[in-house]
Design brief:
The chain is an alpha+beta fold and 415 residues long. It is 19% helix and 34% strand.
Length: 415
């Protein structure tokens, strides 16, 4: 009788012992964790993916996080052993525990408090406690960062990014409209966003890291990701590198010193919107921006006070004079409503083209558009066509703009 052999089984992987060791200042570790948090999944994933991978060695500490859409790597100089060490710790617990270790201290003392990690043991001179260790075998490592092909001034990039973010769509059933499309061409980065009712285009000058890209490179990043990024990096000053991979796993990396943030691209791209931007107009009107904002806020508040949410606000012309009023109530109510005067100057054409016409907009969209400009004045470029043909807003008198243009579709009013 033959002897029965038990089938082989795959032995379970041995848990990896946390071996990361470092010593640094509380302020620098807390700042690095706040940036790394950008890659921690907000939704429920495998528990290990909600961890932070800590790598140490050669007096450097690197924190890595990855939520399958965004990968973050932050490196800071600290004291470490020469040998490399690795620990995967629960991110939320580590961040809270790090803050708790300096509870009761002044802000100045807390910032200068020495902090050390030995495997999973977080310690200061006063207190120490172990942090929950996660299974590194279940952690999906992030893709490699893409080398920068150009650099931009970070603050100018963030200013222009915040302008176009307002025009991005929020409707998940139209995913192509929920992103910011970035195109590198020559020595210029162009950012575009639209939700069908408005369209914003901003330009940023770039400096090639080696040589100017030979062909245009395009990426399309979710607007919500870039919106959170803009808030996290608002205080960063210096150059920002941009690297783009179009094929395979399409992704974009923004690099700032020893920090890299790599984001997956949306699959769909925006259609060519060039034709939407007019190159000639019948009338260009320069208006005082601050007064227009005040007028739009008053009109919006009156619409709410009257309980007519969804009603538009309308520009009206009386010769060369312009006013803005809420479009609410009956025809008789509208005739009796007085709009707020807005200082204006015609820079091209004659106001006769607007005689007997009004130009109505969604008040929230109008305020968003006005808020994307920082100049004292801006220019409305109007065509002769009656109907919801987009109106172009620029900072200067030229229709080409000065690095930023905003298209706004008027509201069609009932005859």
């Amino acid at each position: 009788m033959s002897k029965q052999v038990a089938p082989e089984t795959n032995p379970a992987k041995e848990p990896v012992k946390p071996t990361a060791h470092f010593a640094g200042m509380h302020e620098q570790i807390a700042r690095a964790l706040s940036i790394a948090e950008f890659g921690v999944p907000a939704q429920v994933q495998t528990r290990s993916q909600r961890g932070v991978l800590i790598e140490t060695g050669r007096d450097r500490l690197t924190l890595s996080t990855f939520d399958f859409q965004t990968a973050v790597s932050v490196t800071v100089p600290v004291e470490t052993p020469v040998a490399k060490g690795y620990s995967l710790l629960d991110f939320a617990e580590l961040k809270k525990a790090l803050s708790a270790t300096v509870a009761g201290e002044t802000k100045k003392v807390a910032a200068r408090t020495p902090v050390a990690l030995a495997g999973d043991l977080l310690a200061t001179e006063h207190i120490a406690l172990p942090i929950t260790t996660l299974d590194i075998h279940e952690f999906t490592h992030p893709p490699e960062a893409t080398p920068a092909v150009v650099t931009v001034d970070a603050q100018h990039f963030l200013v222009q990014l915040n302008c176009v973010l307002r025009a991005a769509g929020r409707d998940d059933t139209l995913p192509a409209l929920t992103g910011i499309q970035m195109t590198l061409e020559g020595e210029k980065l162009t950012m575009t966003a639209t939700d069908r009712y408005r369209c914003a285009v901003a330009e940023v000058l770039t400096t090639p890291t080696v040589k100017t890209p030979e062909a245009p490179m395009t990426t399309h990043i979710p607007a919500d990701v870039l919106g959170r990024l803009a808030k996290s990096l608002k205080s960063y000053e210096g150059p920002m590198g941009i690297g783009i991979v179009e094929g395979g796993v399409a992704r974009t990396t923004l690099s700032m010193g020893d920090t890299t943030i790599t984001m997956r691209s949306l699959e769909d791209r925006l259609p060519d919107l060039t034709a939407l931007f007019p190159t000639e107009c019948e009338l260009s009107v320069q208006i005082d921006r601050a007064t227009a904002v005040r007028a739009a806020k008053k009109c919006q508040a009156l619409i709410k006070a009257k309980g007519e949410n969804g009603a538009p606000v309308a520009f009206a012309w009386d010769g060369d004079k312009i006013s803005l009023a809420p479009r609410i109530g009956t025809a008789d109510d509208q005739a009796r409503t007085k709009g707020m005067a807005i200082p204006s100057v015609n820079t091209h054409g004659s106001a006769d083209v607007m005689r007997g016409r009004t130009l109505a907009f969604n008040p929230a969209f109008l305020l968003d558009a006005l808020g994307t400009f920082t100049s004292d004045t801006l220019t409305l470029h109007l065509g002769r066509t009656v109907g919801p043909k987009p109106v172009l807003l620029t900072e200067g008198a030229e229709m080409a703009g000065t690095g930023y243009r905003h298209l706004l579709v008027p509201v069609r009013l009932a005859e």
